[in-house]
Amino acid sequence: MPSPSRQWIPSAIADVLLILVFAAIGRDAHARGDIISGAFITAWPFLTGAALAWMAIRAWRAPLAVWPTGVLVWISVVLVGMLLRAATGQTVVLPFVLVASISLGVFLLGYRVVARLWIRATQRRQRRV
Q1: Is the pTM of this model over 0.85?
Q2: Distance CA 100, CA 77 (A)
């Protein structure tokens, strides 16, 4: 497996981009207009949760690990994101919490699973050659 020092920047970028995609999809689905700048307004609480998780658990040491990195980043994104949304008067209703939890889980855990499978398959191919 490639060293974590080569994986952490693309992994951090992937987390940020997938959180922004989640926010943009939500804004578009609810016809809130101004999807680009609006996505940043919607996403900032979740991005804050991701940044806090990355720092607290030192995610750069194993950025593609589903456990514990992916799971803890996901939990922090949802938990901190919802707390900050509530603190700033944004919507925090049960259906939104459920949809956000599932969507962000699929995004943040899903790409890690795919990346690990890809790396494993690539390593097997290289060993055969």
Answers
A1: yes
A2: 10
